[in-house]
């Protein structure tokens, strides 16, 4: 039986101290600085998620593999992430956020070691797989932990910080990798040593985080396609309709953006490719702070429009070989993902009970990452066959259609998008 959204959930501190969650009635809410600190593990793991992006040109030269193989390496990240989402949300809701986050951080540390010593495509695949599993855990348990620490009266802040932590980390990773690999020795090693230090601080934050474990968790299978309680399907569908095209657009820039830069500029500068990814996710972060007080339907609609415009400019980029237009496409893609992600998380935070929130977050990300894995891989192999210009044009046309459909779905569902009083 599905839980009532109004039923109180008792909690037991995961360290055995008997302290309830900050959101539980009768306990003092955590200070605001803890809400910000609770988002740090999400940022730390997402730094790793894209840290390898500027380094693929080095591995391609040293190991030797095609653009199609590159997108397959990228896709194994999606495979690990989706596999993690099948279990991490449910485990987090039943056993507690810390139970999921600690192994995830340990696996992220292992991924750093594999990346730093990689000399084969197989090693890169393993590292990306480990990274995907860790990311799947933090987008479900980590984001839910931010909401738990924030409590019921700071849900909008929780959604904003959790979403921004994800996209800021995703952009900071490639920027760090680009700068460190160009300026310091051991270009494919240094960034992962730095990342291991960052993950260690995130580990300490999780160990001290004031989160608890529900005393009456939901029932059902431990491994399953994540979902939401009855009555919340509309909110999930609206979030996916905009978030999925947005994150697919940014995934394309991450996987094939360096190839586009090489073709347009004749350069393999890792700082340049890392900076492009950083400004893309910086746009995703900044736009969320800018629109946070707007109605959720407006945020989702604007996200769909931004992703649509990103694909229009992508087609213009490959037809005109214009670097400024490529940067504009990346910025619009970042804004589209940011608004789709914020709108989707806000809808779930406001309607899904705490004992199902991590699973709901996992469901949103499954809906987003499936096309984000399939479409860029298809575009990579298509580009090998018919050229990067034609491959990117086909990809942009398909994704633009999905973004338009998502925006129309949101506009048509105006009465189904709950707004705060």
Describe this entry's structure for a reader.
It is a multi-pass membrane protein. Residues 1-28 are annotated as: Disordered. InterPro entries: MFS, MFS_dom, MFS_trans_sf, MFS_Transporters, Sugar_transporter_CS. Its main location: membrane. Keywords: Cell membrane, Membrane, Transmembrane, Transmembrane helix, Transport. It is a single chain. This protein is mainly α. The protein has one domain (29-210, 229-416): Up-down Bundle (Growth Hormone, Chain: A), CATH 1.20.1250. It has 14 helices and two strands, in the order E-H-H-H-H-H-H-H-H-E-H-H-H-H-H-H. A two-stranded antiparallel sheet has the order 1-2. The chain starts with 10 loop residues before the first strand and ends in a 9-residue tail after the last helix.
What is the element layout, followed by pairings?
Elements (H helix, E strand, L loop, with lengths): L10 E3 L18 H7 L1 H12 L4 H8 L3 H29 L1 H21 L3 H30 L4 H29 L6 H19 L3 E3 L18 H33 L4 H22 L4 H25 L2 H29 L5 H30 L1 H25 L9
Helix pairs in contact: 1-6, 2-6, 2-7, 2-8, 4-5, 4-6, 4-13, 5-6, 5-8, 6-7, 6-13, 7-10, 7-12, 9-10, 9-11, 9-12, 9-13, 9-14, 10-12, 11-12, 11-14, 12-13, 13-14
Structure characteristics:
421 residues; mainly alpha; Growth Hormone, Chain: A; two-stranded antiparallel sheet; globular; transmembrane; Putative multi-drug efflux transporter; cell membrane; MFS_trans_sf
Please summarize what this structure is.
This is Putative multi-drug efflux transporter. The protein contains 14 helices and two strands.
């Amino acid at each position: 039986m599905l839980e009532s959204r109004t039923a109180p959930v008792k909690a037991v501190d995961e360290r055995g101290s008997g302290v309830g969650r900050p959101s539980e009635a009768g306990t003092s809410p955590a200070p605001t600085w803890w809400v910000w600190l609770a988002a740090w593990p999400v940022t730390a793991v997402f730094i790793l998620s894209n840290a390898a992006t500027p380094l693929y040109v080095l591995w391609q030269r040293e190991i030797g593999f095609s653009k199609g193989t590159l997108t397959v390496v990228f896709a194994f990240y999606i495979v690990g992430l989706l596999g993690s989402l099948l279990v991490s949300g449910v485990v987090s809701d039943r056993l507690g956020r810390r139970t999921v986050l600690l192994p995830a951080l340990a696996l992220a540390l292992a991924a750093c070691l594999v990346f730093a010593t990689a000399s084969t495509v197989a090693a890169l695949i393993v590292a990306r797989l480990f990274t995907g599993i860790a990311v799947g855990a933090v987008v479900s348990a980590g984001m839910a932990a931010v909401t738990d620490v924030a409590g019921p009266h700071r849900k909008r802040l929780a959604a904003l910080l959790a979403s921004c932590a994800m996209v800021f980390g995703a952009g900071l990773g490639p920027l760090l990798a680009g700068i460190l690999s160009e300026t310091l020795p051991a270009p494919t090693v240094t960034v992962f040593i730095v990342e291991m230090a960052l993950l260690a601080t995130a580990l300490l934050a999780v160990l001290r985080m004031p989160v608890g474990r529900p005393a009456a968790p939901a029932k059902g299978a431990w491994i399953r396609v994540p979902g939401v309680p009855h009555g919340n399907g509309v909110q999930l569908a609206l979030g996916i309709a905009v978030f999925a095209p947005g994150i697919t657009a940014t995934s394309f820039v991450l996987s094939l953006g360096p190839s586009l830069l090489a073709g347009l500029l004749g350069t393999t500068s890792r700082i340049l490719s890392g900076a492009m990814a950083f400004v893309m996710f910086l746009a995703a972060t900044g736009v969320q702070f800018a629109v946070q007080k707007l109605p959720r339907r407006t945020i989702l609609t604007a996200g769909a429009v931004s992703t649509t415009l990103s694909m229009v400019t992508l087609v213009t980029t490959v037809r005109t070989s214009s670097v400024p237009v490529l940067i504009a496409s990346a910025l619009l893609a970042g804004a589209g993902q940011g608004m789709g992600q914020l709108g989707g998380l806000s809808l779930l935070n406001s309607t899904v009970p705490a004992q199902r929130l991590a699973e709901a977050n996992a469901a949103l990300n499954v809906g987003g990452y499936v096309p984000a894995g399939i479409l860029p891989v298809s575009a990579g192999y298509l580009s090998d066959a018919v050229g990067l210009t034609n491959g990117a044009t086909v990809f942009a046309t398909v994704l633009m259609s999905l973004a338009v459909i998502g925006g129309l779905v949101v506009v048509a569902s105006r009465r189904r998008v709950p707004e705060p009083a």
